[in-house]
Backbone:
């Protein structure tokens, strides 16, 4: 039950993008086509899972003695993981690699991944709990990305006033999405 | 401009090594310099909370669980602990029990005072929460709500009831508009009791009044 | 780099024309996450300023010694060091602010603005310009944060920098200090800026034609 709660909490109740404002660069940048958005989301989940595992090991065995090195090691781990994922995607699917373009290396500066590492540590999740947390967070991120992409795809076909075009509208949409997701709070109130 | 020709691997390693070394030195020194201050801040915050939930207490001792018994210790060192508070004459006022659990939005972390003689909760303070501002976060400041925790029976267990319907000594009036957060606080206290009450009551009986 | 580089120009551009938040859309995570009040926005802005100016200072000083291949990693090491220092200092000297800002202080290291400035400017320009650019960008960032934070605080808590503005009877628009409020505030601000720009551009056009 606890694992399920961790997953759902990270995915919808405390959605990384709509509740914690993480991962906004890809959220506003890549999310114009549902397809790309979904694949970027998957790449993120993958990076998050690996990061979760690495940070758990690092934290348990090494960083306990030097907590101030935490930030440094985490960001280096994330950067390396992203590099690795980048190379893998390039080899497995050059088309996807091209579609994702700049946003793949930008996963490194995606605050969502770093936030995941930091909170997993501060909440002292076990190895398995960490995995569920990463899965939940990544899924939530993907969900937000896909939702945004879907809405914007539809919006492309409508008349939009000049001043709203571009970023402004995305933010208003995000605001409404965020409000909608607030409805998930208290999902486990009976517990 | 950065170097035009491609640097050899040795140069790369040296650069990263130096950067890492410099960074390491700076971090270690800043860490060592700020540690005492940070520790003191944390202790002061905890002390303030303990004395808030154990009215009349002036000194305190730390207890952790060891082999099914409460054992006094110098410092908790990250282990879960409860804090016994003693008044000016050395008499036990009660135990400050930290506990946490799921609230409406996220985890709520609080500390409450437990009097083992009267078997009552005598105070409660929320330490950390992310409840809805203006609604759930009333559990932190709403005086009527907090007052309910100043003489709260814990047997059979603490119960949260609809706002204004409190009739028994073990009941707490939920804050209207924040029922879930209120219930969460009560659940968290019950959890804390499940965990620590037996140990505390046992120790109190075996030590007697002469604390 | 152009010899006509003007220190004033390089500094001032970060405040309005190339404002990190409103124009470049960088550093959005902290811009929305901790701006539920003006003071939090200011604190985050100052912490980011410390990191940005410090990093630009070091990167520009050593720019000729950092090989191209490892430049991003080196930048990250430098930035992460400053962020950790800021984090520890806040924890030691202002624990309540540290609690408010929480994990987002550490997230300054993932702020694309800071890494971006190192890559785009500090590593290619002399020290005074690098620092000026950093100061300007950081200043613009802080101003943006205070603006968003201020609006959200006024509407959502009825106060500004902790000073209650409207008295007891004001029913605050709580949603403003919750996540949706962040998105909406920034969205509306962007609309206002776009409208202002449109008006100004069309006026310029009229002036040219007349």
Residues:
């Amino acid at each position: 039950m606890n694992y399920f709660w961790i997953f759902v909490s990270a995915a919808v109740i405390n959605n990384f993008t709509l509740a914690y404002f993480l991962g906004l660069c890809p959220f506003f940048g890549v999310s114009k086509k549902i397809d790309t958005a979904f694949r970027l989301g998957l790449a993120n989940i993958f990076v998050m899972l690996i990061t979760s595992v690495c940070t758990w090991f690092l934290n348990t065995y090494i960083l306990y003695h030097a907590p101030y090195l935490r930030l440094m090691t985490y960001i280096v781990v994330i950067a390396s993981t992203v590099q690795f994922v980048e190379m893998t995607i390039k080899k497995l699917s050059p088309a996807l690699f091209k579609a994702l373009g700049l946003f793949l290396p930008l996963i490194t500066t995606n605050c969502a991944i770093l936030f995941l590492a930091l909170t997993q540590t501060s909440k002292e999740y076990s190895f398995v709990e960490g995995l569920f947390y990463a899965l939940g967070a990544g899924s939530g991120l993907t969900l937000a990305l896909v939702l945004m992409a879907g809405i914007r795809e539809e919006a492309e076909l409508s008349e939009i006033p000049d001043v709203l075009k571009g970023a402004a509208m995305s933010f208003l949409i995000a605001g409404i999405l965020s409000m909608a997701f607030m409805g998930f709070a208290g999902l486990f109130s009976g517990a | 401009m950065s170097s035009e020709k491609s640097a050899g691997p040795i140069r790369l390693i040296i650069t990263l090594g130096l950067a890492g070394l410099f960074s390491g030195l700076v971090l270690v020194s800043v860490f060592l310099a700020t540690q005492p201050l940070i520790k003191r801040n944390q202790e002061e915050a905890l002390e303030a909370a303990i004395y808030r939930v154990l009215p009349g207490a002036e000194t305190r001792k730390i207890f952790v669980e060891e082999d099914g018994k409460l054992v006094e210790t110098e410092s908790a060192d990250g282990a879960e602990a409860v804090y016994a508070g003693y008044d000016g004459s050395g008499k036990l006022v009660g135990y400050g029990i930290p506990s946490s659990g799921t609230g409406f939005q996220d985890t709520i972390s609080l500390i409450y005072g437990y009097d083992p003689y009267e078997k009552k909760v005598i105070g409660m303070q929320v330490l950390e929460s992310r409840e809805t501002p203006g609604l759930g976060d009333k559990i932190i400041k709403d005086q009527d709500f907090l007052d309910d925790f100043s003489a709260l029976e814990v047997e059979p267990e603490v119960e949260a009831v609809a706002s204004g319907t409190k009739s028994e000594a073990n009941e707490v009036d939920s804050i209207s508009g924040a029922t879930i957060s209120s219930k969460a606080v009560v659940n968290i206290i019950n959890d804390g009791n499940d965990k620590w009450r037996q140990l505390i009551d046992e120790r109190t009986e075996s030590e007697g009044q002469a604390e | 780099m152009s010899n006509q580089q003007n220190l004033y120009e390089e500094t001032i551009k970060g405040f309005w024309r190339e404002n990190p938040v409103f124009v470049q859309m960088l550093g959005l995570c902290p811009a929305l996450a901790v701006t539920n009040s003006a003071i939090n926005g200011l604190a985050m802005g100052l912490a980011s300023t410390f990191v940005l100016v410090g990093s630009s200072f070091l990167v520009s000083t050593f720019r000729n010694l950092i090989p191209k291949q490892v430049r991003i990693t080196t930048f990250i090491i430098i930035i992460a060091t400053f962020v950790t220092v800021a984090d520890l200092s806040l924890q030691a000297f202002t624990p309540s602010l540290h609690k408010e800002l929480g994990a987002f202080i550490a997230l300054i290291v993932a702020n694309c603005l800071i890494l971006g400035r190192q890559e785009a400017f500090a590593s290619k320009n002399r020290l005074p310009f690098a620092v000026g650019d950093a100061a300007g960008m950081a200043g613009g960032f802080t101003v943006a944060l205070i603006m968003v934070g201020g609006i959200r605080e006024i509407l959502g808590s009825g106060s500004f920098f902790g000073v209650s503005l409207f008295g007891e009877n004001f029913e605050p628009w709580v949603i403003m200090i919750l996540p949706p409020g962040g998105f909406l505030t920034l969205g509306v601000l962007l609309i206002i800026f776009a409208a202002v720009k449109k008006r100004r551009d069309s006026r310029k056009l009229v002036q040219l034609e007349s």
Notes: The radius of gyration of chain C is 19 Å. The beta strands of chain C are 159-160, 163-164. Residues 7-209 of chain C form one domain. Chain C has eight helices and two strands.
